[in-house]
Every structure is written in C-alpha cells, then in structure tokens.
Amino acid sequence: MDTTAPEENYSEKAPPMAPLSSLRELPTTKRGARTRAALVKAARKVFERDGYLDSRLADIAKEAQCAAGSFYTYFAGKEEVLAAVLLEAQEDMMHPGMGRVQGTDDPYAVLEASNRAYLEAYKRNARLMALLEQVAQVEPEFRRFRSRRADAFIHRNARGIADLQARGVADREVDPMMASRALSGMVSVMAYSAFVRGEEQEEGTPVDFEELVSTVTRLWANALRFPGHR
Amino acid sequence: MDTTAPEENYSEKAPPMAPLSSLRELPTTKRGARTRAALVKAARKVFERDGYLDSRLADIAKEAQCAAGSFYTYFAGKEEVLAAVLLEAQEDMMHPGMGRVQGTDDPYAVLEASNRAYLEAYKRNARLMALLEQVAQVEPEFRRFRSRRADAFIHRNARGIADLQARGVADREVDPMMASRALSGMVSVMAYSAFVRGEEQEEGTPVDFEELVSTVTRLWANALRFPGHR
Amino acid sequence: MDTTAPEENYSEKAPPMAPLSSLRELPTTKRGARTRAALVKAARKVFERDGYLDSRLADIAKEAQCAAGSFYTYFAGKEEVLAAVLLEAQEDMMHPGMGRVQGTDDPYAVLEASNRAYLEAYKRNARLMALLEQVAQVEPEFRRFRSRRADAFIHRNARGIADLQARGVADREVDPMMASRALSGMVSVMAYSAFVRGEEQEEGTPVDFEELVSTVTRLWANALRFPGHR
Amino acid sequence: MDTTAPEENYSEKAPPMAPLSSLRELPTTKRGARTRAALVKAARKVFERDGYLDSRLADIAKEAQCAAGSFYTYFAGKEEVLAAVLLEAQEDMMHPGMGRVQGTDDPYAVLEASNRAYLEAYKRNARLMALLEQVAQVEPEFRRFRSRRADAFIHRNARGIADLQARGVADREVDPMMASRALSGMVSVMAYSAFVRGEEQEEGTPVDFEELVSTVTRLWANALRFPGHR
DNA sequence: AATGAATGAGACTTCATTCAT
DNA sequence: GATGAATGAAGTCTCATTCAT
C-alpha cells in the first residue's frame, strides 16, 4: 500500500506536472549559470526570512551580491524566481520512497513508514512549506501549484485505500477519495501545525516527533478500521 | 459529548476572546454609526471580492460612498476594519449550539450533529473564512486570532474525547489533545477544501454536503474506535 | 534713563501697535465669551506644549472641551487664536515699569533695574517667548509683530542712550540707534539662551539669575563707557 | 587674541563636529554623483526660496530635473538633504581665519579683523543662515546643530577673553564665558538683523557694513574695558 | 552580462475647513 | 451656539521595472 501522506507528493521523478514555467531560457555561459544559481539561493533565503510579500527584489539581488538590474536577465519577476526556488527544492521536499519497509506486507507498518517519511520531509523543508502556504494565498498560479501537488498525493493514497478495501483490510463504507482527502489533510494539518506554527511561537511544548507519527498512523488505521488491536 | 468540529467553535457566547481591539472610539451620533456600519459592510464586500492584500482603502470608501478621509474617522487602517468585520461576523460564524440533538445520548449522533453544525457555519461564511486564511498568512495579529479560535475549539473537543475515553467509548491509547488536533484539523481541512477551494474552481464535482458530514463523522468515530458497526 | 531691554517692550498700555486683528467680532452671549476664553487658554497650552506647527486645531478644541467646529465660531484659523493668545499675554509679558528705582538718578542703578525687570518678564513668559520666536520664523504676520515689538524697545533704549550722551555719561562716538540695537539684542539673546534653551536641555548649569543681571548690566555700562570703576 | 565673532566659527578645519549623518551611502558612479549634487543644489535653492517648511520634495526633484522617486536614492527625506546642504556650505560659512592681521599684536585690530571676517561670512551666506534659524525652530536635530556651532564659537571667544584678562587688557570682573556668550550673541544678533531681516523688508536704510563692523567692535572693546581712548 | 541609477505610478495619511443637525 | 462627522486636497514614500554605460 502506498498510503503516503498529504499535500505534497512527488516521489516519482517524472516530469513533476510541469508546474511552473521557466520563461527565460537558461544561461549560456558559466558565469551566467553562477549568477542565476546565486539568485535562486538568495531568493530562497530572503523569502524564508522575510516572507514572499515583504521581500523586495532589491534585497534578493543584494543577497546574491549582484545588481538589481541583473535579476531581470534571468527572471521576469518575483513569481519566476519563486518558481525556480520551488522547482529546485522539489526534489528534497519529496520524501524518498519511504524506505520501502522492505520485506513486509503489514499494512500498518507500511502506513507508518509512509507517514514518517512524509513528516520527515515536511520537517526538513518546513520554512519552504510555510512559504508555499503563504504564496498560495496570494498568487493564483501557486495556489494551483499547491493544489496539483496535493491532488496527486490524494489520488495516490486513494488508490492505496481502494486497494486495501479490495483486500478486505479497510472499511468499505467510505469513499476512497473522500477518505483520502480527509486523512491526507489530517496529516498535512498536523505537519503544518507542528513544524510551521510550532516554530513561530517559542513557547509551548514542541511536539514529539515519534508521538506525532504514531498518533497520526493510529488514527488513520483506526479510521479505516484496519483489523488488529493496537 | 461535545465532539464538535474544527478550527472555529464558539457556541458559548462567553467572552469572544476580545480578539481585536477597536482603538478608535465608537461614533456618538446616529449618522456616525451609519457611516461606520457602511464602511464595515463595504470592507467585507471589497475584501471578499479583491482579497485583503489587493484591496485599497480608497475602494472601501468608495463602496461605502464616502470620502477617502472619512475612513480614518473610524479606523486606523486596513487591519482595523478587518478586525471590525471579523468581530461582526464572529457571531454567525459560530455555529449555534449544534441543535443539541436533544434527547439522545448516542455519541455518534451527537458527533454527527456537531460536525454538521460546524460545516454549515463554515459553508455559510466560506468567503470570510477564506479571507481569514489569507490574512493569517500575512498579518501576525490575525494569525494569532485564528490560532486562538482553533485552540479553543481543539480544547473543547479534547475534553469531549477525554470524556468518551473515561466512559469507555473511545480508544484510550491516544492522547486526547493530539487526537483532537488531528481530527479537528481533518474536519476544517475538509471544510476549506469543499467550500473555499471548491468555489474557486468552477469545474469539478461540488461535494455533496451530506456525504461530507457522514464521511467525516464516520472517520472520526472510527479513529476513536467508537463501538458498533457502521 | 530708560535703558530697558530687548526685543519686547510695551510698558505703556496704549493701543499696543494694533498688532493682530480680531476679524471675528467678539461673542455676544455669556456662554460665547466662556467658550472663546476656553479656546484661547487651550490654545496657549497646546502651543506651548506642542509648538505652533505641530499643534492641530482639533487638539485645541479638545483641550477646550468643545467640538472642532466650534472653533470657527470665534477664530478664522490657527493664526487668529495665536493672535488672541499673544494679545492676552501682552500685558504680563511687559515688565512693569521696572519699579522706577524711585529717588535715584544713578544711571547704573536705573540700567540695572531695567534689565532686571526685562529679564524677569522674559523668564516669566519664557514658553510664550519661545513660541513667538518659532512663529516668527514661519508666519510673516508674526515676524512683523515681533519686529515691531523689538523696534519699539530699541527706539526707547536709543532715546535713553542719546540722553546719556547728552549728559556726558555715555560714549558719544557710537550711534545711539546702532548701539541700542546691539545692546538690546545682547540682552534678549542672553534671555533666550538662559530661559528658553536653558529649559530644553536638562543638563548644564542653569544660569544664576543675579549673575545674569549683573553681567549684562556691567557689559552694557562698559560698552557705553559709563564713568566710575565697577 | 582670538576674539572672533559670534555664533558660527570654524576656522580650524578640524573635526567639523560630524554634525549630520549621511545615512544613505554616497553614489558610486559619476552619474550618481552628478544627480546627487544636482539635488543638493536644487534643495538649497528651493529651501532658500520657499523656506524649509513650505518646500516640497517634488519641487526639489523638479528643480534638479529628476523624477520624484530619484530623490530617495540619495536622501531619506527633507532633513537629510538639508543636512547635506549645510554640510556642503559649512566650509564657506566659516570665515577663513580672519586674515590673521599679520604683524600686529594690537588687541583692538585683531578684534576688528575677527568681527569683520565673521560678518562677511554671515553676509555671504545670509539666506542660508536664515534657513538655519528657521529650521532650528522646527527640527530638534538642527537645533542641536546650531547650538553646537554657537558653543564652539563662544568657547573660543571665551578663551580669548580669558587670555586678555590675564594680560591685563580686559576687565577682570566679568566671567569670560558669560561675557563671551553676551558679546558673541550681540554680534550674531546684529548680523541676523542686518543681513537677514534687512533683506526681507525692502524699505529702510540698509546698514552700512563698515559702520556695523566698527560699532560692534567698539562696543565689544568697551565692554571689556580695553585700554586706550577711541 | 553586469551594473546601478532613474523612473513614475499609486497607495497611504493628515487635517483645516465646511456643513447638516 | 454647539456639535462632530464629512470632505478632499496635498504631500510622502515605495519599489518593480527600464535603460544607458
């Protein structure tokens, strides 16, 4: 089963749904490549630090140690750098095949491994996820981007659920798609709450990662009425 | 039991958590009250139409048919009108005691009624909820506002869960708070996805409201291992 | 001799050079008189506190506990209240005939009494003097007002000097007018520096009043080569 | 002796008391330097013409023939350009060592040369001095600037006076500092009155420069009881 | 390619003054 | 007379984007 987790999901390298176009052609010279890379890196730093809205192109250029005008050699504007940033991060934001849990067929173990992988990836890229959430609220283009990612993930989990239903492991009363939507959402909300909001406020008990994994997995398994008594 | 639902929940009229201050004093005269009300109404309309960030004070004033300067008689800026808008809407955004489901003690029925009430309120105020989500990404003050609301709700549901655990109706293995966080989040995510994102895109099957209620309720009940076989 | 001191000088009650017009007619009713008086008083307070430029009519009205609109019943604007404030204060700002130093003819004693009276009056109204200096830099009308006051004083002292020259008590080489300008200016500068600038900065040795009087008097007397060896 | 004259006095190039900071960094390119210089020049012109308070940044930009926004490339606001204007003028506002009156030790001659140098510098920069007086009434930062300048001058003259007292040339009864304050103030008042106020009003006898110098010098010398009978 | 100055549209605020009650 | 809300002109400042070197 592949009951991974919510909202983001691109384990397959495949053309990741051509999310964001690079209008500008890539630089020809070595020097150009270097500058462009510096800009993308700087952009990520500035975005994560100041937020997308409060960041200015001038800051990004300064951070990349190049002139404001140079920015436009590579990008048409803020949106486009952000696209580049996201594109570049996409790889790592995708949990790496959840370690396969080789050699088991136990649905619960698979589910747990899947959730763990998702949450680890989320944690690793928490600031970027926060950024994406913010941007999605503001730029339709990125709202669509986020939706597509979430949908891909949801569909995959829906297939997993349907499969389990077929095998008699999961409750047949629920619609696989709706259930996937709900449970995937549940996990992503928890991730956001733990790693994004958790970071903002200094106070409060930082959630224990293992407890997070096990709670989420247990609820998910129960919700689908996995057999067994855990 | 009071397993209401996610993110927002203020059936008790009690101190509406004095969320957002109205620095400017309220108008003395009838005329003033009328103008202020017109501004709040106009602000809500403009915010919901253009989004918080893309709206200009001038537009709000125009919508309220008053001079730009008049705005400042009542509010110090965008934030403050928004606070007023939210304050005014708070009442209705709170689902009204979920009808009590008088006469039953069936946890499942209570849960379902609670979820239905929550989702109805969410649907009724979908555009405002969308606005709140947007603003929370941008203005710390409103991020806190949203958090406080969610927390209040989560705590209430956590109490409900703990109660059910004590009565032997709910799985004792999960921490009530974490479970509440996860399940409440699940419902609010579904509400957002159905009523906010569902509205944006014309295409797609609009979710059936009843199916939403029953799915969410079933998953919630299962997750906590309510007894019985539904 | 009447070698009083600088910049301000209106001991004679006589129509004090019709300095500032009261366009608005004075109030008829008792209530009106009360309001007007309250406004003038409030204006002085606000002006002295916030400075002329940074004060707003709304503040004055509030301080006078009346509505903003009421202001215009009595004054055409800021300038006019200020005129009223100055008019009202004029009386006390004028040192009271310097006690005449009755019974002496000693020029030095007269001079000293005159300077003392001037400095006392200046000190008493320091904040208002500061205000006047400020306003004179900004409003031509009040620049002229200040000039006329200074001139009146200078002329008077010039007459005093001429008189002493005639009596052989003062150096005949200097032009009475120029000398008066210089010496009167000297005293007013000292007064400003001691009572206005001295107040602004907490630090520093506050000037000893008596030392101020005696220094100024001695220098003045010496400058005109009063006979005798003090 | 170095009984220069009043209020301003910086013949020594020494630390120009780092009066006003240029927060914005200076332009790198030649073009930038040109624009900045044009802005400073324009600012001086506009300030002297309209007064500090009534001048608008837009006017300055227009005068410098550049876009309004360009202003902010070099200055944070009105205050900062003014600082630049003052900084640039500082050099010339400082009378140049008063020609030294080489070869004489006659205190009177030195004093006269000093006063002449001061008054010439004042006259040369009369409009700027007027501006400074105005601004000092309005912006604390510049009030302090003016005070520091005056103080430097006063201290220098005080030293001169003390020196003369030691040499038996000046009256020992007066405190050097107070005397310096008074006499320095006397000269600056005369300068202001002659070159600033004298310009405003078309009418009136424009003061004869030489008479001004000699009167001021004579009174100063007398006040300190220089020996000799002039 | 890189630079960094120049541009200018546009949004925000303030407050003196007017005006309907 | 008094009230206090309404008005709207003016000025400030920000930055994405362009452009001459």
From TrEMBL, chains A, B, C, D:
Keywords: DNA-binding, Transcription, Transcription regulation. Coiled coil: none annotated. InterPro entries: Homeodomain-like_sf (IPR009057), HTH-type_TetR-like_transc_reg (IPR050109), HTH_TetR (IPR001647), Tet_transcr_reg_TetR-rel_C_sf (IPR036271). Pfam families: TetR_N. Residues 33-93 form the HTH tetR-type domain. Residues 56-75 bind DNA. This is TetR/AcrR family transcriptional regulator. It comes from Streptomyces maoxianensis.
